[in-house]
């Protein structure tokens, strides 16, 4: 199968037509809409974290761009020569593992262990980490049986909330970036992802405001911070399928108010995003130089700087 040939991950080629987003400290909602240009909001105090770093994607809602953001960020770091592990903590059939299914070794998914085996104590995280055809990108797959974690007894899965964190700590291999994609709920798997992470990145679309308020992912993040992971931070909000219109401008501004210390990243709309997912390839491999790829690349550089290797 030709899909299983190793492939290097390209950094997009700069092209004058693919205008970069400006870097701004907040979105201006007062200038007339016609003159307004969206930009990536970088708060004045914001500094890139130094790798290694564990980043969870979260939002209690589905269809808001968590999975595409997890994958494209991971590809951006792989393109920069970093060693990246993607952990699929979403049991849904259409999750990240389905997207990468045909690009992972061993070729037959039946021969792979999954994150479920880690939770049930049947495998280590290292044993469930598989290389993909994309140089530098590794996947810990899931399948629908991962959902068993939500209803498991303590005899089956002991302390699921801290299990992923402990599994990451137990792995002595060097990873520059670990990205955990979570499902559209706030159950044990999402909490486990938040407990295991240094940073949270929230993905939103034009319903944006659902992430703040009672019962939202922000409430869960606050509880996780208080009880289990005091250094957890919301470091970025990815506004996916972003269109330049007044609704998106307004919601971006509200996100900036709700998360004043986080990057606000508009990931510009591209019909190719849907095609890439149907074609089961990351966007930058499906269509080179799409606008969202540039947006993810810039955000990746702002979020994490690679640790300088001592030569
Ligand atoms: N930049 C973009 N332009 C157009 N569509 C996008 C963009 N980013 C995401 N989408 C679309 O949003 C939908 C949801 O994305 P997905 O990552 O699967 O969300 P989630 O993981 O939160 O359920 C997909 O159909 C995807 O193609
Ligand atoms: Mg998803």
From TrEMBL:
It holds the Pfam family AAA_31. Residues 53-234 form the AAA domain. Signal peptide: none annotated. It comes from the Bacteria. This is AAA family ATPase.
């Amino acid at each position: 199968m030709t899909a299983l040939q190793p492939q290097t991950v390209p950094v997009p080629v700069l092209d004058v037509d693919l205008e970069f987003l400006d870097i701004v400290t907040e979105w201006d909602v007062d200038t007339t809409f016609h003159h307004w240009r969206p930009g990536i909001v970088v708060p004045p105090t914001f500094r890139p974290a130094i790798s290694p770093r564990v980043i969870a994607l979260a939002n209690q809602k589905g269809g808001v761009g968590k999975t595409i953001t997890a994958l494209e960020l991971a590809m951006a770091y792989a393109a920069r020569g970093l060693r990246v592990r993607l952990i699929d903590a979403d049991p849904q059939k259409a999750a990240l593992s389905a997207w990468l299914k045909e690009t992972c070794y061993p070729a037959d998914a039946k021969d792979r262990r999954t994150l479920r085996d880690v939770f049930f104590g049947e495998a280590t995280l290292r044993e469930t980490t598989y290389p993909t055809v994309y140089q530098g990108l590794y996947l810990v797959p899931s399948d629908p049986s991962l959902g068993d974690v939500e209803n498991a007894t303590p005899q089956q899965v002991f302390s699921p909330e801290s299990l992923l964190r402990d599994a990451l700590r137990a792995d002595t291999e060097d990873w520059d970036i670990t990205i955990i994609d979570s499902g559209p709920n706030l159950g044990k798997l999402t909490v486990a992802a938040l407990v295991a992470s240094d940073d949270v990145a929230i993905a939103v679309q034009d319903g944006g405001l659902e992430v703040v308020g009672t019962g939202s992912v922000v409430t869960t993040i606050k509880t996780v911070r208080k009880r289990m992971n005091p250094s957890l931070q919301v470091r970025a909000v990815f506004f996916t399928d972003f269109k330049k219109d007044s609704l998106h401008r307004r919601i971006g501004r509200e996100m900036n108010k709700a998360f004043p210390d986080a990057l606000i990243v508009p990931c510009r709309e591209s019909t190719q995003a849907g095609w890439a997912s149907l074609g089961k390839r990351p966007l930058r491999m499906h269509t080179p130089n799409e606008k969202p790829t540039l947006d993810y690349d810039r955000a990746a550089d702002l979020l994490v700087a690679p640790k300088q290797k001592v030569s």
